[in-house]
Predict the 3D structure of the following.
Amino acid sequence: MDKVFDYAGVDLKFIVLKMLSVTPMHGYKLAAEIESFFGKKPSNGALNPLFDYLETDELIESSETVEHGKYKKIYSVSKKGLEYLNNSAEKIKSLLNR
């Protein structure tokens, strides 16, 4: 069964995948993007286990880079992650159209 990472009443997994489908980014940038949309920044305690879960399920991929002398992990949505997003969107649309 899919694990739900609830955030503001929405599955944080879906939010992260949707944002990463637009552009790859590191965790801090992703948290800032979520904050700009929802008005509240998710904690590292919420995001880090989610990143691990999504990578284990092969819904996201990561690469390493160094910016300004600091190590950063850049996340991007995988092909499997895009399929998950499309399937989820279709389920949501069908529920709303009932």
Helices lie at 12-22, 27-38, 44-56, 79-96. The radius of gyration is 14 Å.
